[in-house]
Write a structure and sequence with these properties.
By secondary structure, the chain is mostly beta strands. The chain is built from eleven helices and 60 strands.
């Protein structure tokens, strides 16, 4: 009885609230109202003013799933409606009124439809909505009683109406990864397609004018130009990125008085065109509206240093009639030279309070990347470095299978680093494709390893990004490398259009002294043999610290990363520079002291592939001990090389000679120094580990030996899995399933595949993968992604506590060992993890991964970037150069890992052997 009375009182209170709702709610003011969706259904209201200031209204409604907003054209009262993805106890398809100051919700009632995609008022004050699966409905804004007016079942996501005439609706018809913009006149029954193939998902639309729309999406707010069918401007929304509903008042922006000038962006702002390739143009739009009660008269002119490189597309004299829709003022930048171009747009108006308005115009002229990337414009020393690597591995079918006939391509592209301001506009790398397959990336300086990334097969990062952008109807014109395995492409307007790998995180509190610490945290999980599929408890041993000594934050945008990453990444870049310095020092010392050659040795020296065959010039006493000739290999369709054969050696003292290549009378190569060793035997102590910094008189003695390469099984053994995209298949989260779970799935799948091969040593560890990923019959783990592997990945993802971070699935290193839970009840295999809690790469961790590949022939999970990516390393390669100090000799090494990225087989390749994490699997 008490429960019934309480329910009755609640119902009466709700009716009283509805009765007084119009007296309580504050109308909207002249600004854009929006609702942001946090997680699945938590709704947060905010506003954006004409000055682009974002205001958090502090009202978070957990579980409400507010999908739509609309503002009454006469009263300025704000209305909101919920979708179907509400929490338990919250109503679906419900109509609310929203307070214009506090965003407090007032319940009006149920519409009778579960899922309302959007709301819109026509000028007559009638409220319309799109009910998903039912069609266009009208709603009584006082009672929420609704009626279907147009039964249609198409996937309309957004609805908007013209503010000043008839019943003209604009709607976004959602396709798979794009949408079409439709215009429907209800009075004439006329339906037109305005735009097709607009990329993304339109969560909501609001009309700024019939030409300009404000579009809400999962990535923020944008200004959509319906004439060009492109996004003209990103509207900053601060921390609010998943915008579900937007509404702009009409009457609230029409005070009585004289003509009033309003623009978006506001007067005094900088209009940035970004990077624009020479001999092309970039466009930007300023939306201007009259918010008073008289015609607004405007006269525009462009002045300033580079005024001739900016041009108004629209007339310089325009009139915006009182009550008419806003006008779009479009400006074009056509840079005539490289560098920043500047001018000022001045607008004279008859608004007495704003008679002169100004906007700073800037754009950066850049050369065409296609011409920059020709083989003739890359520095010769970088081209030679790539050519020499190709020669070093040409006949090495273990390290570079398929490169016996390979050649460098002339389609060379510069790659930049936004976090290295000392480079300015100069490239940080060059991407050199290799024919018929593969690529080599060379670094332009000591900010990274001389050759940080290469692969003997597949497409290069630039080729991948270009193709990905093209699929999105975008053009990639500039490329960036963010860390070991992360790349980004942007268009000529400096907007990100494609990515490869996860976006970096912002580190707060990382300290310079950490670079000198070998701080490890070790976790060991031992799984006893399971019987008959029964789950058993595991003995888990953990040692070392288990928390970060700093904080993570997300970058709000690609633009913010470019502007601020230099300071944030400073310590990390210093660590990378230090690790790479050992290889750069060897290059420098070799140039200074010469390449050592011994009797009987043969050395092949690459030459520039973009030049005619050079003449050879030898100088020095050592020349008489060698035979040097040009090997022309045109019949084999290979570039020519210089072969140096050491015929004899001096008996007493080393002798040197210089080799120069004459390509033309005006182009002679820098002399290359060689030293012919004596016949005396050198005492070699390879285990002595001396750093070059500590040597008083360092001398390089000995050219690089061949690469020694080890593989954990064959390439065919690899399982080519990828992450599960958000909201697809069994992934119910708002982010991808995460690289940590994918790495473990690939490693477990590798072990399961090996268990199917007699003599592999893994036969008794069957069951790492069971039918459909469960606990059923034993089957061999598939090579490529299946629903069973998705089930495995999702189970591991939950075991290792992967969480959503800025749209990505992130896993803390100390949680990676919890993957042992997946092994319980399936197999008796064990796993072990080791990591550096500071995210600093260390030699000890590299050696653990190395030993797994070399000694046990088992791949190892490693960590690249900074707490960023977990690929699976299944190849390890090293080579060495002998260094002499007085009568002693020791070795310096180059080391590489070959990684399976977990991207379905794409993006794999050789990278520098650095890691801050190691995850291993044992068959016991």
């Amino acid at each position: 009885m008490k429960i019934k009375i309480l329910l009755a009182l609640f119902a009466v209170a709700n009716i009283l609230a509805i009765t007084n709702v119009h007296a309580i709610a504050t109308p909207a003011s002249c600004q854009l109202y929006a609702v942001n969706q946090q997680e699945a259904n938590n709704s947060q209201f905010f506003t954006v003013g004409f000055d682009l200031k974002v205001n958090d209204l502090k009202a978070l409604y957990q579980g409400y799933d507010i999908q739509a907003l609309a503002i009454h054209p006469k009263t300025n009262l704000i209305y909101a409606a919920s979708g179907k993805n509400v929490a338990a106890g919250k109503p679906k398809g419900h109509l609310y009124q929203v307070d214009g100051k506090t965003a407090k919700l007032f319940s009006i009632g149920s519409t009778g439809f579960d899922d309302l995609g959007d709301l819109a008022f026509t000028p007559d004050g009638k409220l319309w909505a799109w009910a998903k699966g039912d069609g266009l409905i009208d709603i009584d804004p006082h009672t929420a009683i609704s009626t279907v007016k147009m039964p249609v079942k198409v996937a309309i996501e957004s609805l908007a109406t013209l503010k000043n005439k008839g019943k003209i609706f604009f709607a976004a018809l959602q396709q798979q990864d794009s949408y079409d913009l439709l215009r429907y006149d209800m009075d004439t029954n006329d339906l037109k397609v305005v735009c097709t193939g607009i990329k993304g998902k339109a969560q909501d639309l609001e009309i700024f004018s019939e030409e300009l729309f404000i579009s809400g999406s999962d990535k923020g707010l944008y200004l959509l130009n319906s004439k060009k069918c492109t996004f003209d401007l990103e509207i900053p929304t601060g921390q609010f990125k998943k915008v579900k509903g937007i509404a702009l008042p009409d009457n609230a922006c029409q005070p009585n008085g004289t003509p009033i000038f309003k623009s978006f962006p506001k007067s005094g702002s900088t209009v940035n065109f970004g990077k624009v390739t020479l001999e092309t143009s970039g466009l930007r739009t300023i939306a201007i509206t009259e918010t008073g009660n008289a015609n607004l008269l405007l006269n525009s002119i462009i002045e300033g240093t580079h005024k001739d490189e900016f041009k108004l597309i629209t007339p310089t004299n325009i009139t915006i009639a009182d009550g008419s829709t806003p006008k779009a003022l479009t400006i074009k930048c056509t840079p005539l030279d490289v560098g920043q171009r500047e001018a000022v747009l001045k607008i004279n108006s008859n608004d007495p309070a704003q008679s002169e308005l100004t906007y700073k115009l800037i754009c950066e002229g850049i050369e065409d990347d296609a011409s920059k990337g020709t083989i003739n414009q890359i520095p010769n020393e970088l081209l030679l470095r790539a050519a020499q690597l190709l020669e070093d591995v040409r006949n090495d079918e273990n390290s570079a299978p398929g490169w016996a006939r390979a050649q460098l391509s002339d389609d060379i592209t510069p790659i930049y680093r936004p976090d290295l301001p000392e480079l300015g506009h100069k490239p940080a790398y060059y991407n050199i494709p290799v024919k018929p397959s593969g690529f080599i990336i060379v670094s332009t300086g000591d900010h990274d390893f001389p050759i940080p990334h290469w692969n003997f097969t597949g497409e290069s990062p630039v080729q991948y990004l270009t193709a990905k952008a093209t699929k999105l109807d975008k053009k990639a014109t500039r490329f960036y490398k963010l860390d070991a395995l992360s790349y980004i492409a942007e268009d000529q307007e400096s907007q990100q259009v494609a990515d490869l790998g996860d976006f970096p995180r912002k580190a707060i509190g990382i300290q310079r002294e950490w670079l000198n610490q070998e701080e490890l945290s070790e976790t060991t999980a031992v799984i006893p043999e399971s019987e008959n599929g029964a789950k058993v408890e595991s003995d888990v041993r953990i040692s070392g610290p288990q928390k970060f000594a700093f904080e993570f934050e997300k970058w709000e945008s690609w633009q913010e990363y470019k502007e601020k990453s230099a300071e944030t990444n400073r310590v990390l870049n210093e660590g990378l520079r230090y690790d790479a310095s050992k290889e750069w020092e060897l290059i420098s010392l070799t140039e200074q002291y010469g390449e050592l050659l011994s009797a009987g040795e043969s050395y092949q020296l690459a030459i520039l592939p973009n030049k005619r065959v050079p003449e050879i010039k030898l100088e020095g006493k050592g020349a008489k001990f060698v035979k040097v000739e040009l090997l022309e290999r045109s019949k084999q369709k290979l570039p020519s090389v210089i072969e140096i054969k050491v015929l004899d050696a001096p008996s007493d003292a080393e002798v040197s000679f210089n080799l120069s290549l004459i390509y033309s009378s005006s182009e002679i190569s820098k002399p290359i120094k060689f030293v012919v060793a004596t016949k005396k035997q050198i005492v070699e102590l390879p285990q002595i580990n001396l750093e070059l910094d500590s040597l008083k008189v360092p001398n390089i003695r000995g050219n690089w030996g061949p690469w020694t390469t080890f593989w954990a099984g064959s390439h065919n053994d690899q399982r080519l899995y990828s992450q599960i995209p958000k909201k697809e298949f069994n992934n119910s989260s708002n982010c991808a399933s995460g690289c940590g779970a994918t790495a473990w799935a690939m490693l477990f799948g590798w072990g399961d595949y090996r268990a199917s091969i007699n003599g592999s040593g893994w036969q008794h560890r069957w069951g790492l993968y069971r039918e459909n990923g469960g606990y059923g019959n034993n089957v061999v783990a598939p090579k490529n992604m299946t629903q069973g592997i998705r089930n495995v990945s999702w189970e591991i993802r939950n075991d290792i506590s992967t969480f959503c971070w800025d749209g990505q699935g992130a896993t803390a290193p100390w949680n990676m060992s919890d993957a042992y839970k997946y092994l319980q009840g399936r197999t008796g295999a064990t796993l072990k993890t080791n990591y550096n809690v500071l995210g600093i790469s260390t030699g000890g961790l590299r050696n653990r991964a190395r030993d797994s590949i070399i000694n046990r022939r088992v791949p190892a999970i490693i960590g690249t970037g900074w707490f960023k990516h977990y690929p699976l390393a299944y190849g390890y390669s090293w080579r060495r150069k002998r260094v002499n100090l007085l009568f002693w000799s020791y070795w310096k090494y180059q080391r590489k890992f070959y990684v399976n990225q977990g991207w379905g087989g794409s993006g794999n390749g050789w990278i520098s052997a650095r890691t801050w994490f190691v995850g291993q699997l044992y068959h016991n």
